[in-house]
Amino acid sequence: MLLALSDVTKTYPGATAPVLRGVSFDLDRGRMLALMGESGSGKSTLLHLIGGLDTADRGRVAINGTDLTPLDDAGRAGLRRGTVGVIFQQFNLVPSLSAGANIAFQARLSGRHDPAVDRALADRLGLADHLHKYPEQLSGGQQQRVAIARTLAARPDLVLADEPTGNLDEASAETVLTLLMDLVAETGAGLILVTHSERLAARLPRRLRLQAGLLA
Ligand SMILES: Nc1ncnc2c1ncn2[C@@H]1O[C@H](COP(=O)(O)OP(=O)(O)OP(=O)(O)O)[C@@H](O)[C@H]1O
Protein backbone atom coordinates (compact mmCIF):
# COMPACT_ATOMS: atom_id res chain seq x y z
CA MET A 1 0.00 0.00 0.00
CA LEU A 2 1.41 3.38 -1.04
CA LEU A 3 -0.43 5.39 1.62
CA ALA A 4 -2.40 4.21 4.63
CA LEU A 5 -3.98 6.60 7.12
CA SER A 6 -5.78 5.27 10.15
CA ASP A 7 -7.58 7.26 12.81
CA VAL A 8 -5.51 10.41 12.22
CA THR A 9 -6.24 13.14 14.76
CA LYS A 10 -4.79 16.67 14.85
CA THR A 11 -5.40 19.64 17.14
CA TYR A 12 -3.26 22.75 16.64
CA PRO A 13 -1.63 24.10 19.81
CA GLY A 14 -3.96 26.58 21.48
CA ALA A 15 -6.99 25.53 19.43
CA THR A 16 -10.12 24.47 21.29
CA ALA A 17 -11.30 21.88 18.78
CA PRO A 18 -9.45 19.30 16.66
CA VAL A 19 -9.07 19.94 12.92
CA LEU A 20 -9.02 16.20 12.17
CA ARG A 21 -10.95 13.78 14.37
CA GLY A 22 -10.03 10.32 13.14
CA VAL A 23 -9.40 10.27 9.41
CA SER A 24 -8.74 6.93 7.70
CA PHE A 25 -8.21 6.06 4.05
CA ASP A 26 -5.80 4.16 1.78
CA LEU A 27 -4.31 4.93 -1.61
CA ASP A 28 -2.63 2.36 -3.83
CA ARG A 29 0.18 3.08 -6.26
CA GLY A 30 -1.09 4.47 -9.53
CA ARG A 31 -4.38 5.66 -8.00
CA MET A 32 -5.69 9.21 -7.86
CA LEU A 33 -8.18 10.96 -5.66
CA ALA A 34 -9.60 14.44 -5.16
CA LEU A 35 -9.72 15.80 -1.61
CA MET A 36 -12.52 18.30 -1.14
CA GLY A 37 -14.12 20.21 1.73
CA GLU A 38 -15.02 23.74 2.72
CA SER A 39 -12.40 26.36 3.48
CA GLY A 40 -10.92 25.56 6.89
CA SER A 41 -12.04 21.93 6.85
CA GLY A 42 -8.45 20.69 7.19
CA LYS A 43 -7.43 19.72 3.65
CA SER A 44 -4.03 21.42 3.78
CA THR A 45 -3.48 20.10 7.30
CA LEU A 46 -4.07 16.56 6.05
CA LEU A 47 -1.65 17.08 3.13
CA HIS A 48 0.99 18.40 5.55
CA LEU A 49 0.64 15.27 7.69
CA ILE A 50 0.90 13.00 4.65
CA GLY A 51 3.90 14.98 3.37
CA GLY A 52 5.61 14.70 6.75
CA LEU A 53 5.68 18.49 7.20
CA ASP A 54 3.73 18.19 10.46
CA THR A 55 2.81 15.29 12.76
CA ALA A 56 -0.49 13.80 13.85
CA ASP A 57 -1.40 13.73 17.56
CA ARG A 58 -2.78 10.23 17.23
CA GLY A 59 -3.19 7.61 14.53
CA ARG A 60 -0.95 6.32 11.80
CA VAL A 61 0.27 7.86 8.52
CA ALA A 62 2.20 5.19 6.63
CA ILE A 63 3.95 5.62 3.28
CA ASN A 64 5.11 2.43 1.59
CA GLY A 65 4.54 0.70 4.94
CA THR A 66 6.63 3.12 7.06
CA ASP A 67 4.73 5.01 9.75
CA LEU A 68 5.79 8.68 9.74
CA THR A 69 4.32 9.43 13.17
CA PRO A 70 7.18 8.15 15.37
CA LEU A 71 9.95 9.57 13.14
CA ASP A 72 11.84 12.74 14.05
CA ASP A 73 12.08 15.71 11.66
CA ALA A 74 15.19 14.34 9.94
CA GLY A 75 13.60 10.90 9.54
CA ARG A 76 10.45 12.36 8.02
CA ALA A 77 12.45 14.64 5.71
CA GLY A 78 14.51 11.70 4.51
CA LEU A 79 11.42 9.65 3.72
CA ARG A 80 9.70 12.59 2.04
CA ARG A 81 12.68 13.40 -0.19
CA GLY A 82 12.65 10.04 -1.83
CA THR A 83 8.93 9.39 -2.05
CA VAL A 84 6.63 12.42 -1.83
CA GLY A 85 6.41 15.41 -4.17
CA VAL A 86 4.30 18.47 -3.40
CA ILE A 87 2.84 20.99 -5.86
CA PHE A 88 1.46 24.23 -4.39
CA GLN A 89 -1.08 26.76 -5.57
CA GLN A 90 1.57 29.52 -5.41
CA PHE A 91 4.02 27.49 -7.57
CA ASN A 92 6.89 28.19 -5.10
CA LEU A 93 9.57 28.40 -7.79
CA VAL A 94 13.02 29.68 -6.87
CA PRO A 95 13.05 33.23 -8.38
CA SER A 96 16.82 33.36 -8.87
CA LEU A 97 16.91 30.14 -10.92
CA SER A 98 15.92 29.68 -14.55
CA ALA A 99 12.97 27.44 -15.41
CA GLY A 100 15.42 24.69 -16.40
CA ALA A 101 17.32 24.96 -13.10
CA ASN A 102 14.04 24.99 -11.17
CA ILE A 103 13.01 21.76 -12.90
CA ALA A 104 16.30 20.08 -11.92
CA PHE A 105 16.26 21.44 -8.36
CA GLN A 106 14.34 18.77 -6.43
CA ALA A 107 15.70 15.86 -8.41
CA ARG A 108 19.22 17.09 -7.58
CA LEU A 109 18.35 17.36 -3.89
CA SER A 110 17.05 13.79 -3.84
CA GLY A 111 20.03 12.47 -5.83
CA ARG A 112 17.84 11.39 -8.73
CA HIS A 113 18.65 14.00 -11.35
CA ASP A 114 18.52 12.76 -14.94
CA PRO A 115 18.75 15.45 -17.66
CA ALA A 116 16.90 13.16 -20.10
CA VAL A 117 13.92 13.05 -17.73
CA ASP A 118 13.97 16.86 -17.43
CA ARG A 119 14.02 17.24 -21.21
CA ALA A 120 11.15 14.79 -21.72
CA LEU A 121 9.05 16.57 -19.09
CA ALA A 122 9.84 20.00 -20.56
CA ASP A 123 8.77 18.77 -24.00
CA ARG A 124 5.52 17.26 -22.73
CA LEU A 125 4.69 20.37 -20.73
CA GLY A 126 5.42 22.76 -23.62
CA LEU A 127 8.36 24.35 -21.79
CA ALA A 128 11.23 23.49 -24.12
CA ASP A 129 11.48 27.06 -25.47
CA HIS A 130 11.21 28.67 -22.03
CA LEU A 131 13.89 26.88 -20.02
CA HIS A 132 16.27 29.85 -20.00
CA LYS A 133 13.61 32.22 -18.61
CA TYR A 134 13.26 33.16 -14.96
CA PRO A 135 9.95 32.60 -13.13
CA GLU A 136 8.97 36.30 -13.36
CA GLN A 137 9.26 36.06 -17.16
CA LEU A 138 6.74 33.20 -17.35
CA SER A 139 2.94 33.24 -17.35
CA GLY A 140 1.10 31.72 -14.39
CA GLY A 141 0.25 28.60 -16.39
CA GLN A 142 3.88 28.23 -17.48
CA GLN A 143 5.10 28.67 -13.90
CA GLN A 144 2.74 25.96 -12.72
CA ARG A 145 3.95 23.66 -15.51
CA VAL A 146 7.53 24.26 -14.33
CA ALA A 147 6.42 23.40 -10.79
CA ILE A 148 4.85 20.17 -12.05
CA ALA A 149 7.99 19.28 -14.01
CA ARG A 150 10.14 20.01 -10.94
CA THR A 151 8.06 17.65 -8.80
CA LEU A 152 7.86 14.86 -11.37
CA ALA A 153 11.56 15.10 -12.31
CA ALA A 154 12.34 13.75 -8.82
CA ARG A 155 10.13 10.72 -9.63
CA PRO A 156 8.11 10.60 -6.40
CA ASP A 157 5.85 7.65 -5.56
CA LEU A 158 3.16 10.02 -4.32
CA VAL A 159 2.26 13.48 -5.64
CA LEU A 160 0.38 15.87 -3.35
CA ALA A 161 -1.16 18.82 -5.17
CA ASP A 162 -2.71 21.60 -3.07
CA GLU A 163 -5.06 23.61 -5.31
CA PRO A 164 -2.46 23.46 -8.10
CA THR A 165 -4.72 25.25 -10.57
CA GLY A 166 -6.25 27.70 -8.10
CA ASN A 167 -4.31 30.65 -9.55
CA LEU A 168 -5.10 29.87 -13.19
CA ASP A 169 -7.99 30.80 -15.44
CA GLU A 170 -10.46 28.02 -16.25
CA ALA A 171 -8.95 27.00 -19.59
CA SER A 172 -5.38 26.91 -18.22
CA ALA A 173 -6.60 24.99 -15.17
CA GLU A 174 -8.11 22.29 -17.40
CA THR A 175 -4.95 22.05 -19.50
CA VAL A 176 -2.64 21.90 -16.51
CA LEU A 177 -4.77 19.30 -14.72
CA THR A 178 -4.88 17.13 -17.84
CA LEU A 179 -1.07 17.28 -18.16
CA LEU A 180 -0.60 16.57 -14.46
CA MET A 181 -2.93 13.56 -14.51
CA ASP A 182 -1.42 12.15 -17.73
CA LEU A 183 2.15 12.49 -16.48
CA VAL A 184 1.36 11.06 -13.03
CA ALA A 185 -0.43 8.12 -14.68
CA GLU A 186 2.63 7.46 -16.87
CA THR A 187 4.99 7.37 -13.90
CA GLY A 188 2.64 5.09 -11.92
CA ALA A 189 2.69 7.44 -8.92
CA GLY A 190 -0.31 8.12 -6.69
CA LEU A 191 -1.98 11.55 -6.73
CA ILE A 192 -3.95 13.45 -4.12
CA LEU A 193 -5.43 16.62 -5.58
CA VAL A 194 -6.93 19.20 -3.23
CA THR A 195 -9.50 21.29 -5.03
CA HIS A 196 -12.57 23.43 -4.38
CA SER A 197 -13.75 22.84 -7.91
CA GLU A 198 -16.48 20.20 -8.35
CA ARG A 199 -15.77 20.32 -12.07
CA LEU A 200 -12.06 19.46 -11.66
CA ALA A 201 -12.74 16.90 -8.90
CA ALA A 202 -15.20 15.12 -11.20
CA ARG A 203 -12.28 14.27 -13.50
CA LEU A 204 -10.64 12.10 -10.84
CA PRO A 205 -11.81 8.54 -10.25
CA ARG A 206 -12.29 8.97 -6.48
CA ARG A 207 -13.38 11.87 -4.29
CA LEU A 208 -13.08 12.29 -0.52
CA ARG A 209 -14.76 15.14 1.37
CA LEU A 210 -13.61 16.49 4.74
CA GLN A 211 -16.42 17.70 6.96
CA ALA A 212 -16.23 18.52 10.66
CA GLY A 213 -12.86 16.77 10.92
CA LEU A 214 -14.04 13.53 9.35
CA LEU A 215 -14.30 12.11 5.87
CA ALA A 216 -17.94 12.35 4.83
N1 LIG B 1 -0.35 26.27 11.82
C1 LIG B 1 -1.59 26.41 12.29
N2 LIG B 1 -1.80 26.79 13.57
C2 LIG B 1 -3.03 26.93 14.09
N3 LIG B 1 -4.16 26.70 13.37
C3 LIG B 1 -4.03 26.33 12.09
C4 LIG B 1 -2.74 26.17 11.48
N4 LIG B 1 -2.92 25.79 10.19
C5 LIG B 1 -4.26 25.71 10.01
N5 LIG B 1 -4.92 26.02 11.13
C6 LIG B 1 -6.39 26.01 11.32
O1 LIG B 1 -6.85 24.69 11.02
C7 LIG B 1 -8.07 24.74 10.27
C8 LIG B 1 -7.89 23.98 8.97
O2 LIG B 1 -6.98 24.68 8.13
P1 LIG B 1 -6.52 24.10 6.72
O3 LIG B 1 -5.58 25.09 6.13
O4 LIG B 1 -6.06 22.71 6.87
O5 LIG B 1 -7.91 24.11 5.93
P2 LIG B 1 -8.22 23.94 4.38
O6 LIG B 1 -9.36 22.99 4.27
O7 LIG B 1 -6.98 23.59 3.65
O8 LIG B 1 -8.70 25.41 4.00
P3 LIG B 1 -8.65 26.23 2.60
O9 LIG B 1 -9.57 25.50 1.66
O10 LIG B 1 -9.16 27.57 2.99
O11 LIG B 1 -7.21 26.23 2.14
C9 LIG B 1 -8.41 26.21 10.10
O12 LIG B 1 -9.36 26.55 11.09
C10 LIG B 1 -7.09 26.92 10.33
O13 LIG B 1 -7.31 28.20 10.88
From TrEMBL:
GO terms for molecular function: ATP binding; ATP hydrolysis activity; transmembrane transporter activity. Gene3D superfamilies: P-loop containing nucleotide triphosphate hydrolases. One of its GO terms (cellular component) is plasma membrane. InterPro entries: AAA+_ATPase, ABC_transporter-like_ATP-bd, ABC_transporter-like_CS, ABC_transpr_LolD-like, MacB-like_ATP-bd, P-loop_NTPase. It comes from the Bacteria. Residues 3-215 form the ABC transporter domain. CDD domains: ABC_MJ0796_LolCDE_FtsE. Pfam families: ABC_tran. Keywords: ATP-binding, Nucleotide-binding, Transport. PANTHER family: IMPORT ATP-BINDING PROTEIN, TRANSPORTER, PUTATIVE-RELATED. This is ABC transporter ATP-binding protein. It comes from Paracoccus gahaiensis.
